[in-house]
Write a structure and sequence with these properties.
The structure holds two protein chains of two kinds.
Chain A: E1 6-15, E2 18-28, E3 33-37, H1 44-52, E4 59-64, E5 67-68, E6 81-82, H2 94-104, H3 109-122, H4 138-150, E7 156-160, H5 168-184, E8 188-193, H6 196-202, E9 205-210, E10 213-218, H7 220-225, H8 230-236, E11 240-250, E12 253-258, E13 261-266, E14 278-283, E15 288-290, E16 298-309, E17 313-320, E18 323-330, E19 342-347, E20 353-356
Parallel strand pairs in A: 3-8, 3-9, 6-7, 7-8
Antiparallel strand pairs in A: 1-2, 1-4, 4-5, 9-10, 11-12, 11-14, 12-13, 14-20, 15-19, 16-17, 16-19, 17-18
Helix pairs in contact in A: 2-3, 2-4, 3-4
Chain B: H1 3-37, E1 38-39, E2 42-43, H2 46-53, H3 55-88, E3 89-90, H4 94-100, H5 109-120, H6 125-132, H7 142-145, H8 147-172, H9 176-184, H10 189-217, H11 221-226, H12 232-238, H13 248-278, E4 290-291, H14 294-323, E5 324-326, E6 334-336, H15 339-346, H16 348-380, H17 387-395, H18 402-416, H19 429-454, H20 457-465, H21 470-499, H22 502-507, H23 516-524, H24 530-556
Parallel strand pairs in B: 3-4
Antiparallel strand pairs in B: 1-2, 5-6
Helix pairs in contact in B: 1-13, 1-16, 1-17, 1-18, 2-13, 3-8, 3-10, 5-8, 5-14, 8-10, 8-14, 9-10, 10-13, 12-13, 13-18, 14-24, 15-16, 15-24, 16-17, 16-19, 16-21, 16-23, 18-19, 19-21, 20-21, 21-24, 23-24
The chains are: A alpha+beta, B mainly alpha.
Chain lengths: ~350, ~575
């Protein structure tokens, strides 16, 4: 039986009065690109540092490939990390920086050189071996850090906000680069970020964190389109939310009483609803379409408060019963929309998500 | 290394260092206190009362305090304008000036005093000059008339670089945008300086003035050479011979210690608040140094020129004494010779002194590098139980004058280890090296501390993360990254150990163990041109130190100032 690359169970960590991690559990499969996504201060970096052994959890177990590593020192973990500020040693040139881990593994000089040259080629830094870190651009430094982690042939690589120090343009390029490097290997990546675009576009699977807890875990598309709670809905993109009451459950279809009238939604697997339950009804701006509803669709009338053309899309601010909603529609010439007019809108039941209200304020 | 040992090692090092400091810092201090406050019947205030009621002693205290306060004030007057211009303006010759300003540090003031004597004593140059131009009839002993003035002048000229370096560093650390904001809101340059720059630089000013105050208050060599016996340090020196029998010496030492500690404590209290706010200002903008032109530039040149001329006068006269065949009641020496430079290297005494000083200074530097690095590492990187203590204790020698430590060593090690390698009467070398090291430890800790804080901990985490054990991380990452700081700290420690006066004068009691400073002191009273040989030996020492300081300055660059910070 094969073990997961990382198995984390019930990790708790307190810093004085602050609970940084509150019973975190997740697994990462071999070769998977797993994201820890959350706002700053949610504990994601602490979790990564615990995986690297740089912090000690108060309780919980950590297994790498089935082996308990909780008591191992950082240097015995074998999970190289890509640090947010790179941490390239300024007194060593690129070659010695990259070869550092191999030297620590008591590898022969010759082989160190060969493998460093090989990995530098892979990250596109062939011939940069003699440079000092200070002589490299931000993007090049980023590549060196990746090379330094990959060269030791690890089964796990940890990345701590690796793109946060790069400008917007470079960030996109490096994001693709990291995706490519990951696909070329069978290494499990644990990638920490607060940027949901990075996470949605790269992740095989992801965990959304808030206040030391995992709020939702799954594939990016699942989490985006069927968020399990309000936090995930808000954090992963724009979300329209309305208070609603469940009126009936008919197999996969749930009937709702909303401020817009009777709506229906598709039930998510694994959740049960009872008639009369107060819930939230969520739909993404891009699933809102203008015009009168086809049969079976959820319809509502709303005042167009503001229109904003972004190019490919048109951002529409809607008002209905004093609540604000948003719609994102493809900007087509002569769309019959005008600010200050009330018009008809609709959402498909498949795009309408029911969310539990437990944490509602 | 086994896991147990790896996790235990930091604790062992921590407690080992604490034990070392307890024996070589805590115990001597305790001994001094016990000597001052205990008689046969137990606790007694008799000696301290006797000290504080004897008009002679009180006058010595008053003299010492007057010297210290005057020296501190005049150092401030000299350094403040120069430091501000150095930190804020650029002008031709700035690099040369900043190097020249460090030269006064390379000569112990009491050696300079020998030079001053030649210039201003009864048979000195000034008398000769005034007689020749006919302003006076007979020779006048300027130093005899104003001994305090001479001491204050000499010590000021020796110590102002310490304050100057502190000030430059604190001015440079102020975020330029804070001053820009003041100017933007309508403050003139002068009001910006008074309302923004000066308050923000207060920690550095207090730290520097405290150092200078304690230094001047406990300076032994200069008053000794000028023949001013009625100051506390000299009276303590005179009581060395009766250390075991007369407790008055201990009482005087306690008085010096209490006043020094008080000065240090007051400056700490006064800066606590401003220190917190000053660290808020990070350097967000690169500072643009405005070029200085016209009249202000001329004025600055004139000011610096005067200061440097006066500050280097002792050095120049010492070199001239070393070169002169005869210099008595004449403006300049009559006849030149290189003979004394040869003799300064030739005799058993001087050769021994050179070797001793080199050996001692090197041992002290090595001890300090090891201790300083370990302490800084334990305090910054491992926050073990007890590392706060360690930090406090290691910084303590700043407030403890060398005089006190030397006196304490003499008292307790001679009494408890008679005849052993720790008995300064039989062989003071070990204690001298240790006392030098303990005295300079704060500077070394500071240097290593600053280095570690400027070095992101992630460098070490990354190394551990890639499989380097704690020892390997220190060897491959931490130490290489700290080389400049540690080396510079070691060089300064070396330089100041070579210059150390009070420890050397008190602890080294027989000729084979004399370090350079004590050899110079003993040569000065000698026959057969002893003064000339002493001056030549002083010149050799100056060359050695000048080279050392230059090297340290190159290694540290602008960070030189951090070495002398006291807070």
């Amino acid at each position: 039986m094969s073990h997961p690359a990382i198995h984390v169970k019930n990790i708790t960590k307190r810093f004085e009065d602050v609970t940084a991690l509150d019973g975190l559990s997740f697994t990462v499969e071999p070769g998977e690109l797993f994201f820890l996504l959350g706002p700053s201060g949610c504990g994601k970096t602490t979790m990564l540092r615990i995986l690297a052994g740089l912090e000690t959890p108060d309780s919980g177990t950590i297994r790498f490939g089935g082996e308990d590593v909780a008591t191992r020192s950082p240097y015995q973990r074998g999970a190289p990390m890509v640090f947010q500020n790179y941490a390239l040693w300024p007194h060593l040139n690129v070659r010695d920086n990259v070869g550092f881990g191999l030297v620590e593994r008591r590898m022969a000089r010759r082989e160190v050189h060969a493998r460093v040259a090989d990995v530098l080629k892979r990250v596109g830094l062939d011939g940069y071996g003699q440079r000092l870190p200070g002589q490299l651009s931000g993007g090049q430094q980023q590549r060196v850090v990746l090379a330094r982690a990959l060269v030791v042939n690890p089964s796990i690589v940890l990345l701590d906000e690796p793109l946060s120090n790069l400008d917007a343009k470079l960030r996109g390029a490096m994001r693709n680069e990291i995706g490519r490097l990951h696909r070329e290997t069978d290494i499990a990546f644990v990638y920490v970020t607060h940027d949901q675009v990075e996470s949605l576009s790269l992740a095989d699977r992801m965990a959304v964190m808030s206040d030391g807890r995992i709020e939702g875990m799954g594939k990016p598309s699942e989490l985006y389109h069927r968020p399990p709670n309000r936090f995930c809905a808000d954090f992963l993109g724009k979300a329209n939310l309305a208070a609603a009451t469940v009126t009936a459950c008919e197999g996969a279809t749930i009937r709702l009483d909303t401020p817009f009238g009777a709506w229906s939604a598709r039930a998510a697997a694994g959740l049960s609803w009872t008639p009369g339950e107060a819930v939230l009804c969520m739909f993404r701006p891009e699933s809102v379409s203008p015009g009168s509803a086809p049969p079976g669709a959820n319809a509502f009338d709303a005042l167009v408060a503001n229109l904003q053309l972004t190019g490919a899309t048109l951002e529409v601010d809607l008002r209905c019963n004093d609540d604000a909603y948003q719609a994102t529609v493809l900007s087509r010439y002569a769309l019959p929309l005008e600010a200050g007019r009330t018009s008809a809108w609709h959402v498909a039941p498949e795009d309408t998500v029911v969310i539990k209200r437990q944490e509602e304020v | 290394m086994s896991r147990r040992l790896t996790s235990l090692a930091p604790h062992l090092i921590l407690w080992g260092i604490l034990a070392f400091l307890a024996v070589f810092l805590g115990w001597p201090l305790l001994h001094v206190f016990r000597g001052a406050f205990a008689d046969k019947d137990g606790f007694s205030l008799a000696y301290v009362t006797a000290l504080l009621t004897d008009p002679l002693q009180l006058q010595a205290l008053a003299n010492s305090l007057t010297i210290a306060i005057l020296v501190t004030l005049s150092c401030l007057v000299v350094s403040l304008p120069m430091a501000w211009f150095m930190a804020r303006r650029c002008f031709p010759g700035k690099g040369l000036c900043s190097a020249l300003l460090l030269i006064p540090l390379i000569l112990p003031p009491f050696v300079g005093a020998v030079g001053m004597k030649i210039l201003f004593a009864r048979a000195g140059s000034l008398s000769a000059l005034l007689m020749r131009v006919g302003l006076t009839d007979g020779p006048i002993d300027w130093l005899g008339r104003f001994p305090m003035l001479g001491i204050v002048l000499l010590e000021t000229m020796h110590l102002f670089p310490v304050l100057y370096l502190n000030l430059v560093a604190s001015f440079a650390n102020i975020d330029p945008s804070l001053e820009d904001a003041a100017a933007n809101l309508g403050a003139t340059p002068w009001r910006t300086f008074r309302r923004v720059t000066l308050p923000l630089a207060m920690p550095g000013i207090f730290a520097g003035t405290t150092l200078v105050f304690i230094w001047a208050f406990t300076e032994l060599g200069t008053p000794l050479v000028f023949g001013l016996r009625r100051v506390l340090p000299v009276m303590i020196y005179d009581s060395v011979s009766e250390v075991g029998t007369n407790p008055m010496g201990y009482a005087r030492v306690v008085l010096v210690l209490v006043i020094s500690a008080l000065g240090f404590w007051i400056s700490k209290r006064l800066t606590r608040r401003s220190q917190r706010t000053a660290t808020l200002g990070r350097l967000s903008v690169q500072r643009q140094e405005t070029p200085l032109r016209g009249l202000p530039l001329v004025a600055l040149y004139a000011f610096m020129g005067t200061v440097l001329f006066v500050a280097l006068l002792p050095h120049v006269s010492v070199i001239m004494i070393a070169l002169s065949r005869r210099w008595f009641l004449s403006v300049l020496p009559e006849g030149w010779t290189l003979e004394f430079f040869g003799r300064a290297l030739g005799s058993d005494l001087t050769q021994g002194a050179m070797v001793n000083s080199l050996l001692l200074a090197m041992s002290a530097s090595v001890i300090d590098v090891i201790l300083g690095f370990c302490i800084a590492w334990l305090c910054v990187r491992r926050k073990l139980v007890g590392s706060d203590w360690l930090d406090t204790v290691a910084m303590l020698p700043i407030a403890v004058p060398g005089l006190v430590i030397a006196f304490g060593y003499l008292g307790c090690f001679a009494a408890h280890f008679p005849g052993s390698w720790l008995d300064p009467r039989t062989n003071p070398m070990a204690l001298l090296a240790i006392s030098y090291a303990v005295r300079r430890l704060p500077y070394m800790v500071r240097a290593a501390h600053a280095g570690l804080q400027q070095t992101s901990v992630t460098y070490e985490e990354a190394a551990a993360n890639l499989g380097a054990s704690p020892l390997r991380v220190i060897r491959r990452i931490t130490l290489p990254l700290l080389t400049a700081n540690l080396l510079a700290g070691a060089v300064l420690c070396f330089a100041f150990s070579m210059l150390e006066v009070s420890d050397s004068l008190i602890l080294a009691q027989s000729e084979p163990f004399y370090p350079i400073t004590k050899a110079i002191y003993s040569l000065m009273d000698g026959l057969e041109n002893g003064v000339n040989v002493a001056a030549a030996l002083g010149t050799w020492a100056m060359c050695l130190l000048g080279a050392g300081m230059l090297w340290a300055a190159c290694l540290l660059g602008k960070r030189m100032g951090t070495m002398f910070r006291a807070g």
